[in-house]
Design brief:
With 394 residues, this protein is mainly α. The protein has 17 helices and ten strands. The longest helix is centred in the first third of the chain and has 16 residues. About 2% of the residues have low confidence.
Length: 394
Protein backbone atom coordinates (compact mmCIF):
# COMPACT_ATOMS: atom_id res chain seq x y z
CA UNK A 1 0.00 0.00 0.00
CA UNK A 2 2.80 2.44 0.87
CA UNK A 3 4.41 1.70 -2.49
CA UNK A 4 1.20 2.76 -4.27
CA UNK A 5 1.01 5.92 -2.16
CA UNK A 6 4.61 6.70 -3.12
CA UNK A 7 3.76 6.42 -6.81
CA UNK A 8 0.73 8.72 -6.39
CA UNK A 9 2.84 11.32 -4.58
CA UNK A 10 5.42 11.22 -7.35
CA UNK A 11 2.73 11.91 -9.94
CA UNK A 12 1.14 14.72 -7.90
CA UNK A 13 4.50 16.39 -7.33
CA UNK A 14 5.43 16.38 -10.99
CA UNK A 15 7.33 13.12 -10.91
CA UNK A 16 5.71 11.74 -14.07
CA UNK A 17 9.02 10.80 -15.66
CA UNK A 18 10.09 9.19 -12.41
CA UNK A 19 6.81 7.26 -12.19
CA UNK A 20 7.36 6.01 -15.73
CA UNK A 21 10.82 4.77 -14.73
CA UNK A 22 9.37 2.97 -11.72
CA UNK A 23 6.75 1.30 -13.92
CA UNK A 24 9.43 0.23 -16.38
CA UNK A 25 11.61 -0.98 -13.52
CA UNK A 26 8.79 -3.11 -12.18
CA UNK A 27 8.46 -4.80 -15.56
CA UNK A 28 12.21 -5.38 -15.84
CA UNK A 29 12.34 -6.79 -12.30
CA UNK A 30 9.63 -9.20 -13.43
CA UNK A 31 11.76 -10.19 -16.42
CA UNK A 32 14.56 -10.95 -13.95
CA UNK A 33 12.15 -12.79 -11.61
CA UNK A 34 13.70 -10.95 -8.66
CA UNK A 35 10.72 -11.66 -6.44
CA UNK A 36 11.19 -15.43 -6.62
CA UNK A 37 14.62 -15.60 -5.00
CA UNK A 38 14.21 -12.59 -2.72
CA UNK A 39 10.94 -13.68 -1.07
CA UNK A 40 10.99 -16.32 1.66
CA UNK A 41 8.05 -18.71 2.05
CA UNK A 42 5.45 -16.74 3.98
CA UNK A 43 7.66 -13.66 3.99
CA UNK A 44 7.19 -10.14 2.65
CA UNK A 45 7.94 -9.67 -1.05
CA UNK A 46 11.59 -8.81 -1.76
CA UNK A 47 12.49 -8.95 1.97
CA UNK A 48 14.87 -11.88 1.44
CA UNK A 49 15.57 -14.91 3.55
CA UNK A 50 14.69 -17.59 1.01
CA UNK A 51 16.99 -20.64 1.30
CA UNK A 52 18.89 -21.31 -1.93
CA UNK A 53 20.54 -24.73 -2.14
CA UNK A 54 23.89 -24.90 -3.93
CA UNK A 55 26.45 -27.71 -4.27
CA UNK A 56 28.56 -25.81 -1.73
CA UNK A 57 25.88 -25.29 0.93
CA UNK A 58 22.74 -23.26 1.47
CA UNK A 59 22.59 -19.50 0.98
CA UNK A 60 19.82 -17.13 2.01
CA UNK A 61 18.74 -14.36 -0.29
CA UNK A 62 19.26 -10.73 0.68
CA UNK A 63 16.62 -8.19 1.64
CA UNK A 64 16.28 -5.85 -1.36
CA UNK A 65 13.54 -3.58 0.00
CA UNK A 66 14.58 0.03 0.72
CA UNK A 67 15.00 -0.57 4.45
CA UNK A 68 18.17 1.29 5.40
CA UNK A 69 19.21 -1.03 8.21
CA UNK A 70 18.66 -4.46 6.65
CA UNK A 71 17.94 -3.77 2.98
CA UNK A 72 19.32 -1.60 0.19
CA UNK A 73 17.88 1.72 1.32
CA UNK A 74 21.32 3.28 1.59
CA UNK A 75 22.55 2.13 -1.81
CA UNK A 76 23.22 4.63 -4.58
CA UNK A 77 22.41 3.92 -8.22
CA UNK A 78 26.11 3.33 -8.82
CA UNK A 79 26.36 0.86 -5.93
CA UNK A 80 23.28 -1.04 -7.11
CA UNK A 81 24.64 -1.15 -10.65
CA UNK A 82 28.02 -2.44 -9.43
CA UNK A 83 26.35 -5.20 -7.44
CA UNK A 84 24.16 -6.42 -10.30
CA UNK A 85 26.60 -5.99 -13.16
CA UNK A 86 29.96 -6.56 -11.46
CA UNK A 87 29.02 -8.81 -8.53
CA UNK A 88 30.42 -6.50 -5.84
CA UNK A 89 28.12 -5.04 -3.16
CA UNK A 90 28.87 -1.95 -1.04
CA UNK A 91 31.85 -2.41 1.23
CA UNK A 92 33.64 -4.52 -1.36
CA UNK A 93 31.51 -7.59 -0.57
CA UNK A 94 31.87 -10.09 -3.41
CA UNK A 95 28.61 -11.76 -4.41
CA UNK A 96 28.23 -15.45 -5.08
CA UNK A 97 26.91 -16.40 -8.54
CA UNK A 98 23.66 -17.55 -6.94
CA UNK A 99 22.97 -13.89 -7.68
CA UNK A 100 23.14 -14.15 -11.48
CA UNK A 101 25.43 -11.17 -12.01
CA UNK A 102 27.27 -13.08 -14.79
CA UNK A 103 24.01 -12.60 -16.75
CA UNK A 104 22.91 -9.23 -15.36
CA UNK A 105 26.24 -7.79 -16.52
CA UNK A 106 24.77 -7.84 -20.04
CA UNK A 107 21.87 -5.58 -19.06
CA UNK A 108 22.02 -1.92 -20.05
CA UNK A 109 22.74 0.63 -17.33
CA UNK A 110 19.42 2.43 -17.79
CA UNK A 111 17.54 -0.83 -17.21
CA UNK A 112 19.44 -1.54 -14.00
CA UNK A 113 18.71 2.03 -12.85
CA UNK A 114 14.99 1.52 -13.55
CA UNK A 115 14.94 -1.66 -11.48
CA UNK A 116 16.60 0.24 -8.64
CA UNK A 117 13.98 3.00 -8.93
CA UNK A 118 11.23 0.40 -8.65
CA UNK A 119 12.77 -1.27 -5.61
CA UNK A 120 13.18 2.12 -3.91
CA UNK A 121 9.45 2.74 -4.44
CA UNK A 122 8.54 -0.29 -2.33
CA UNK A 123 7.66 -0.19 1.33
CA UNK A 124 10.80 -0.81 3.42
CA UNK A 125 10.73 -4.06 5.38
CA UNK A 126 13.03 -4.61 8.32
CA UNK A 127 14.32 -8.15 7.94
CA UNK A 128 17.97 -8.76 8.80
CA UNK A 129 19.17 -11.80 6.86
CA UNK A 130 22.33 -13.75 7.55
CA UNK A 131 23.20 -14.55 3.95
CA UNK A 132 26.63 -16.07 4.70
CA UNK A 133 25.72 -19.62 5.68
CA UNK A 134 28.20 -21.62 3.61
CA UNK A 135 30.67 -23.90 5.36
CA UNK A 136 34.40 -23.16 5.44
CA UNK A 137 36.17 -22.36 3.14
CA UNK A 138 33.29 -21.33 0.88
CA UNK A 139 32.22 -18.68 3.39
CA UNK A 140 35.34 -16.67 2.53
CA UNK A 141 33.94 -14.24 0.01
CA UNK A 142 37.40 -13.01 -0.97
CA UNK A 143 37.80 -16.30 -2.81
CA UNK A 144 35.30 -14.96 -5.32
CA UNK A 145 38.06 -12.73 -6.67
CA UNK A 146 39.69 -15.83 -8.13
CA UNK A 147 36.33 -17.13 -9.35
CA UNK A 148 35.61 -13.84 -11.08
CA UNK A 149 39.04 -13.79 -12.71
CA UNK A 150 38.58 -17.32 -14.02
CA UNK A 151 34.92 -17.35 -15.04
CA UNK A 152 33.28 -13.90 -15.02
CA UNK A 153 33.30 -11.95 -18.26
CA UNK A 154 31.69 -8.53 -17.70
CA UNK A 155 30.18 -6.69 -20.63
CA UNK A 156 26.84 -5.34 -21.84
CA UNK A 157 24.87 -7.07 -24.60
CA UNK A 158 25.51 -5.73 -28.10
CA UNK A 159 22.92 -6.21 -30.82
CA UNK A 160 23.99 -8.22 -33.85
CA UNK A 161 23.42 -6.07 -36.95
CA UNK A 162 23.04 -9.24 -39.02
CA UNK A 163 19.93 -10.21 -37.02
CA UNK A 164 16.50 -8.62 -36.87
CA UNK A 165 15.00 -6.66 -33.97
CA UNK A 166 13.10 -9.63 -32.53
CA UNK A 167 16.21 -11.84 -32.39
CA UNK A 168 18.24 -9.10 -30.73
CA UNK A 169 15.54 -8.29 -28.18
CA UNK A 170 15.15 -11.99 -27.42
CA UNK A 171 18.88 -12.42 -27.00
CA UNK A 172 19.04 -9.42 -24.67
CA UNK A 173 16.32 -10.90 -22.47
CA UNK A 174 17.46 -14.54 -22.54
CA UNK A 175 21.16 -13.85 -22.07
CA UNK A 176 20.72 -10.89 -19.72
CA UNK A 177 17.96 -10.14 -17.23
CA UNK A 178 16.08 -13.36 -17.98
CA UNK A 179 19.26 -15.34 -17.06
CA UNK A 180 17.83 -18.52 -18.62
CA UNK A 181 21.25 -20.14 -18.73
CA UNK A 182 21.57 -19.95 -14.94
CA UNK A 183 19.37 -23.06 -14.83
CA UNK A 184 19.56 -24.42 -18.37
CA UNK A 185 23.37 -24.54 -18.69
CA UNK A 186 25.53 -27.23 -17.09
CA UNK A 187 27.95 -26.12 -14.38
CA UNK A 188 31.55 -27.11 -13.77
CA UNK A 189 33.06 -28.19 -10.44
CA UNK A 190 33.35 -24.53 -9.39
CA UNK A 191 29.70 -23.71 -10.07
CA UNK A 192 30.44 -21.74 -13.24
CA UNK A 193 28.69 -22.18 -16.58
CA UNK A 194 30.19 -24.61 -19.04
CA UNK A 195 29.94 -22.05 -21.82
CA UNK A 196 30.54 -24.55 -24.62
CA UNK A 197 27.28 -26.20 -23.51
CA UNK A 198 25.28 -22.99 -23.15
CA UNK A 199 21.52 -23.56 -22.88
CA UNK A 200 21.91 -27.29 -23.54
CA UNK A 201 20.41 -28.30 -20.20
CA UNK A 202 21.68 -28.58 -16.65
CA UNK A 203 21.07 -30.10 -13.23
CA UNK A 204 19.97 -27.68 -10.54
CA UNK A 205 18.70 -28.43 -7.03
CA UNK A 206 17.72 -31.96 -7.96
CA UNK A 207 15.89 -31.00 -11.15
CA UNK A 208 17.07 -31.35 -14.73
CA UNK A 209 16.42 -28.17 -16.71
CA UNK A 210 16.08 -29.32 -20.34
CA UNK A 211 17.94 -27.81 -23.25
CA UNK A 212 16.70 -24.58 -24.82
CA UNK A 213 18.28 -25.03 -28.25
CA UNK A 214 16.47 -26.77 -31.12
CA UNK A 215 18.29 -30.05 -30.40
CA UNK A 216 16.41 -33.31 -31.02
CA UNK A 217 15.31 -35.43 -28.06
CA UNK A 218 16.71 -33.20 -25.30
CA UNK A 219 15.89 -29.72 -26.58
CA UNK A 220 13.28 -27.68 -28.44
CA UNK A 221 13.27 -29.57 -31.74
CA UNK A 222 9.69 -29.69 -33.02
CA UNK A 223 8.55 -26.65 -31.05
CA UNK A 224 6.99 -23.71 -32.88
CA UNK A 225 7.32 -20.06 -31.92
CA UNK A 226 3.62 -19.98 -31.04
CA UNK A 227 3.95 -23.13 -28.91
CA UNK A 228 6.87 -21.73 -26.96
CA UNK A 229 5.10 -18.40 -26.43
CA UNK A 230 2.03 -20.25 -25.14
CA UNK A 231 4.20 -22.27 -22.76
CA UNK A 232 5.85 -19.16 -21.34
CA UNK A 233 2.54 -17.31 -21.14
CA UNK A 234 0.31 -20.03 -19.66
CA UNK A 235 2.59 -22.86 -18.57
CA UNK A 236 1.13 -25.10 -21.28
CA UNK A 237 2.44 -25.46 -24.81
CA UNK A 238 4.18 -27.83 -27.16
CA UNK A 239 2.43 -30.73 -25.47
CA UNK A 240 4.21 -29.91 -22.20
CA UNK A 241 3.25 -28.37 -18.86
CA UNK A 242 5.55 -26.26 -16.70
CA UNK A 243 6.08 -27.84 -13.28
CA UNK A 244 8.67 -27.80 -10.53
CA UNK A 245 10.95 -24.72 -10.54
CA UNK A 246 9.82 -23.78 -14.05
CA UNK A 247 6.22 -23.46 -12.87
CA UNK A 248 7.34 -20.73 -10.46
CA UNK A 249 9.22 -18.95 -13.27
CA UNK A 250 6.07 -18.97 -15.40
CA UNK A 251 3.81 -17.88 -12.54
CA UNK A 252 5.99 -15.04 -11.27
CA UNK A 253 7.82 -13.93 -14.39
CA UNK A 254 7.09 -15.01 -17.95
CA UNK A 255 3.28 -15.04 -17.66
CA UNK A 256 3.46 -11.29 -16.95
CA UNK A 257 5.66 -10.34 -19.91
CA UNK A 258 4.40 -8.76 -23.10
CA UNK A 259 3.59 -10.96 -26.08
CA UNK A 260 6.22 -9.03 -28.04
CA UNK A 261 8.94 -9.95 -25.56
CA UNK A 262 7.81 -13.57 -25.26
CA UNK A 263 7.83 -13.92 -29.04
CA UNK A 264 11.29 -12.34 -29.20
CA UNK A 265 12.60 -14.86 -26.67
CA UNK A 266 11.08 -17.71 -28.67
CA UNK A 267 12.58 -16.40 -31.90
CA UNK A 268 16.03 -16.20 -30.32
CA UNK A 269 15.93 -19.63 -28.70
CA UNK A 270 14.63 -21.45 -31.76
CA UNK A 271 17.23 -19.76 -33.97
CA UNK A 272 20.19 -20.86 -31.84
CA UNK A 273 22.42 -23.57 -33.28
CA UNK A 274 21.64 -27.04 -31.96
CA UNK A 275 24.49 -29.36 -31.13
CA UNK A 276 24.77 -32.58 -33.10
CA UNK A 277 23.62 -35.46 -30.94
CA UNK A 278 24.97 -38.97 -31.07
CA UNK A 279 22.26 -41.41 -32.11
CA UNK A 280 20.85 -43.28 -29.12
CA UNK A 281 19.13 -46.63 -29.36
CA UNK A 282 16.29 -47.49 -27.00
CA UNK A 283 17.54 -49.55 -24.08
CA UNK A 284 15.94 -52.87 -23.17
CA UNK A 285 13.32 -52.37 -20.47
CA UNK A 286 11.87 -54.74 -17.85
CA UNK A 287 8.47 -56.18 -18.77
CA UNK A 288 7.24 -54.98 -15.39
CA UNK A 289 7.74 -51.39 -16.55
CA UNK A 290 5.04 -51.59 -19.23
CA UNK A 291 2.58 -53.23 -16.86
CA UNK A 292 3.10 -50.54 -14.24
CA UNK A 293 2.74 -47.81 -16.84
CA UNK A 294 -0.55 -49.20 -18.16
CA UNK A 295 -1.86 -49.60 -14.62
CA UNK A 296 -0.68 -46.32 -13.08
CA UNK A 297 0.08 -43.82 -15.85
CA UNK A 298 -1.77 -44.52 -19.09
CA UNK A 299 -5.12 -43.12 -17.91
CA UNK A 300 -3.65 -39.60 -17.89
CA UNK A 301 -0.63 -39.76 -20.19
CA UNK A 302 -2.16 -42.09 -22.81
CA UNK A 303 -1.27 -45.63 -23.80
CA UNK A 304 1.22 -44.25 -26.34
CA UNK A 305 2.49 -41.40 -24.16
CA UNK A 306 0.52 -38.83 -26.13
CA UNK A 307 -0.76 -36.94 -23.08
CA UNK A 308 -3.84 -34.72 -22.89
CA UNK A 309 -3.45 -31.18 -24.19
CA UNK A 310 -3.52 -28.62 -21.37
CA UNK A 311 -3.97 -31.25 -18.67
CA UNK A 312 -1.30 -33.92 -18.76
CA UNK A 313 2.02 -33.58 -20.59
CA UNK A 314 2.99 -35.82 -23.47
CA UNK A 315 5.75 -38.28 -22.60
CA UNK A 316 6.40 -39.29 -26.19
CA UNK A 317 9.18 -37.12 -27.59
CA UNK A 318 9.52 -35.10 -24.37
CA UNK A 319 12.89 -33.46 -23.68
CA UNK A 320 12.29 -33.85 -19.94
CA UNK A 321 11.62 -37.58 -20.34
CA UNK A 322 14.75 -38.04 -22.48
CA UNK A 323 17.03 -35.84 -20.40
CA UNK A 324 20.58 -37.10 -19.92
CA UNK A 325 19.82 -37.43 -16.22
CA UNK A 326 16.53 -38.79 -14.84
CA UNK A 327 16.33 -36.73 -11.62
CA UNK A 328 13.28 -34.71 -12.64
CA UNK A 329 11.30 -37.82 -13.59
CA UNK A 330 12.27 -39.63 -10.41
CA UNK A 331 11.32 -36.62 -8.28
CA UNK A 332 7.94 -36.19 -9.96
CA UNK A 333 7.06 -39.88 -9.62
CA UNK A 334 8.09 -39.90 -5.96
CA UNK A 335 6.58 -36.59 -4.90
CA UNK A 336 4.01 -35.73 -7.54
CA UNK A 337 3.76 -32.25 -8.94
CA UNK A 338 1.54 -29.39 -9.97
CA UNK A 339 1.62 -27.41 -13.17
CA UNK A 340 1.83 -23.63 -13.22
CA UNK A 341 -1.34 -21.68 -12.42
CA UNK A 342 -1.55 -18.43 -14.39
CA UNK A 343 -4.22 -15.88 -15.23
CA UNK A 344 -4.61 -17.50 -18.65
CA UNK A 345 -4.72 -21.01 -17.18
CA UNK A 346 -5.72 -20.61 -13.52
CA UNK A 347 -6.10 -24.29 -12.66
CA UNK A 348 -2.77 -26.07 -12.65
CA UNK A 349 -3.13 -29.79 -13.29
CA UNK A 350 -1.73 -32.01 -10.55
CA UNK A 351 -0.14 -35.45 -10.34
CA UNK A 352 -0.05 -37.51 -7.14
CA UNK A 353 3.19 -38.91 -5.76
CA UNK A 354 3.85 -42.65 -5.81
CA UNK A 355 6.55 -42.90 -3.14
CA UNK A 356 4.33 -45.00 -0.89
CA UNK A 357 2.82 -47.06 -3.73
CA UNK A 358 5.86 -48.10 -5.76
CA UNK A 359 9.21 -49.37 -4.53
CA UNK A 360 12.57 -48.40 -5.97
CA UNK A 361 12.69 -51.26 -8.45
CA UNK A 362 9.18 -50.51 -9.71
CA UNK A 363 9.86 -46.79 -10.20
CA UNK A 364 13.11 -47.56 -12.02
CA UNK A 365 11.28 -50.08 -14.21
CA UNK A 366 8.42 -47.80 -15.22
CA UNK A 367 10.78 -44.91 -15.93
CA UNK A 368 13.00 -47.19 -18.01
CA UNK A 369 9.89 -48.04 -20.04
CA UNK A 370 8.84 -44.40 -20.45
CA UNK A 371 12.35 -43.28 -21.44
CA UNK A 372 12.61 -45.99 -24.12
CA UNK A 373 9.14 -46.26 -25.66
CA UNK A 374 7.27 -44.52 -28.52
CA UNK A 375 10.53 -43.39 -30.11
CA UNK A 376 12.12 -42.19 -26.86
CA UNK A 377 15.68 -43.31 -26.18
CA UNK A 378 17.54 -42.66 -22.92
CA UNK A 379 19.54 -44.52 -20.32
CA UNK A 380 17.28 -46.29 -17.81
CA UNK A 381 17.52 -45.09 -14.21
CA UNK A 382 18.83 -47.40 -11.51
CA UNK A 383 16.94 -48.37 -8.33
CA UNK A 384 19.85 -46.92 -6.32
CA UNK A 385 19.19 -43.49 -7.90
CA UNK A 386 15.57 -43.68 -6.78
CA UNK A 387 16.63 -44.66 -3.27
CA UNK A 388 18.99 -41.68 -3.01
CA UNK A 389 16.23 -39.28 -3.96
CA UNK A 390 13.66 -40.59 -1.49
CA UNK A 391 13.26 -37.86 1.09
CA UNK A 392 15.91 -35.70 -0.56
CA UNK A 393 15.05 -31.99 -0.46
CA UNK A 394 16.69 -31.50 -3.88
Amino acid sequence: MRGIVALLLLALLGGGARADEVTRGRYLATVGDCIACHTAPGGAPFAGGRPIATPFGTLRSANITPDRASGIGGWSDAAFDRALRAGIAPGGKYLYPACPFPYFTRARGEDIAAIHAYLRSLAPVGNPVQTDALPFPFDIRALMRGWDAAFFRPGVWHDDPAQDAAWNRGGYLVEGLGHCGACHTAKNAFGADETRRALQGGLLQGWWAPGLTPAPRTGLAGWSIDGLVAYLRTGSGGGQLASGPMAEVVERSTSHLSDTDLRAMAVYLLARPARTEVAVRPAPTPLAGEAIYLDRCAACHGRAGEGTAGLFPALRGSAVVQAPRPQTLIRVVLEGGRAAATDAAPTGAAMPGFASLLDNDEIAAVLAYIRNSWGNASAPPRPAQVERMRGSPG
